[in-house]
Specification:
This protein is mostly beta strands and about 400 residues long. The chain is about 0% helix and about 40% strand. The strands form six sheets. Strands 17-18-19-20-21-22 form a six-stranded antiparallel beta sheet, with no helix packed on it. Strands 1-25-24-23 form a four-stranded antiparallel beta sheet, with no helix packed on it.
């Protein structure tokens, strides 16, 4: 079993019309002005405005005067924005009396740049030296990490970490941590029990059948929690766990769980047939999804139901939630141990060789950054944070805080 380790200037072509306003973009790094509706004219229709970056220009020709005079004879065309779609054609212009001409033509498709990567961070070691398997928090001032020697540690985000009593042994060490909130936290254990805390610094053992051990924990909420090991065991949050566990991948181990909801859950597993990712609708049945060749997937995370990533042997995979997985990042020399992020535009992964990667969520990844040059090949097992400038990683040499 693995150790998880040019702004675009607004172009307005006006023909006897008022100046048009410009909207904004939500997608591009250098947003241009957005398309707007042409202003009514007494003769010719108004020109459509330029579209914004990554957004279609939507222009409507100005209308002719309601009475007297000829209607609009021509309306302006709309110019597409940078990296955007073609603008829509202007609507018909001119009044019924004036006999206006038709609206402007469709804008052209723009060309433009890619979204930026999340910022590179500076990493600082925190806490006690230990092999840490997981990290999670309910906020920037309420963070937990689990390790092999010290068990469960807590930090208020001030760089100091304090061990909490959990009655663990070197053999029965904690392997993962997750909570639905600050008063409902679970830790999976490499033993036949699960830890639970109400956030008061103490941990209760929730027992399981002898011979079972657990590698990860995740839930969609306080009444829908899973632990992974040989398959997955479910709890409604009452301290009782499903026995026997749900079968996921036959004899292949289950390393990680994540879901967008209680009815959209994924498991990262060892290789089983041609799959290392399985999916469930929360009904207890897990269905394999074909993945590119890899020995195992050991981490999984998604921004939502249509942006899901899995990390593992030589690959980081991506799926839009349709059951198809493609390689997003490859390195034939390493195991990608963890994947995590903030929404669709800031995704991170780390490796079994102490490397950290950043992505804009559009298939572009940074070059590898060594987390700690003094330990350049340390295993990184988990990632968590509260913003792209406040991240933590759990590694075999300790906890590292990334800031900008």
């Amino acid at each position: 079993m693995k150790m998880r380790a040019s702004n675009f200037h607004c172009a307005v072509v006006g023909v006897l019309c008022s100046a048009l306003g410009c909207g904004s973009s939500t997608d591009a790094p250098n947003p241009g002005p957005g398309g707007s509706t042409g202003v009514a004219g007494t003769a010719n229709g108004g020109a459509g405005a330029s579209g914004s970056s990554n957004t279609a220009g939507h222009a409507t020709g100005g209308s002719g005067a309601p009475t007297g005079g000829s209607g609009g004879n021509s309306a302006g065309s709309a110019v597409g924005g940078m990296n955007g779609e073609a603008g829509d054609a202007g609507a018909s212009a001119g009044s019924q009396v004036g006999g206006g001409a038709s609206g402007g033509g469709a804008g052209s498709t723009g060309a433009g740049g890619a979204a930026p990567l999340p910022p590179e961070l500076t990493w600082t070691a925190e806490g006690m030296y230990d092999t840490y398997q997981g990290i999670w928090g309910s906020s920037a001032t309420d963070i937990y990490a689990v390790g092999r020697t010290y068990g469960v540690l807590h930090s208020a985000g001030d760089g100091k970490w304090e061990a909490q009593p959990a009655a663990l042994t070197s053999a029965g060490y904690a392997t993962g941590i997750w909570g639905s909130g600050p008063t409902d936290i679970y830790a999976s254990v490499n033993s036949n029990f699960i830890l639970h805390s109400s956030g008061d610094g103490t941990w209760q053992h929730q027992s399981y059948t002898s011979g079972y051990t657990f590698s990860a924990v995740w839930g969609s909420g306080p009444s829908d929690v899973y632990v992974a090991g040989p398959g997955a065991s479910h709890s409604t949050g009452n301290g009782v766990w499903q026995k026997p566990p749900q079968t996921i991948s036959g004899s292949a181990p289950t390393f990680a769980l994540w879901g967008s909801s209680a009815t959209d859950i994924y498991a990262a597993t060892g290789l089983s047939g041609d799959s290392t990712v399985f999916h469930s609708t929360g009904d207890g049945t897990w269905r394999s999804q074909k993945t590119p060749a890899a020995g195992e997937m050991v981490g999984i995370w998604g921004a939502d139901a249509s942006h899901i990533y899995a990390a593992g042997d030589k690959l980081v995979l991506f799926s839009s939630g349709d059951g198809t997985w493609t390689a997003s990042l490859t390195d034939t020399t390493t195991l990608f141990n963890a994947v995590w992020g903030f929404g669709t535009g800031a995704v991170y992964t780390c490796t079994g060789h102490g490397q950290f990667y950043r992505s804009n969520g559009r298939g572009t990844w940074s070059t590898a950054q060594v987390i700690d040059p003094q330990h350049p090949t340390q295993i990184c097992n988990a990632i968590w944070g509260t913003s792209p400038t406040n991240l933590y990683v759990a590694t075999e040499y300790g906890i590292y805080h990334g800031s900008n």
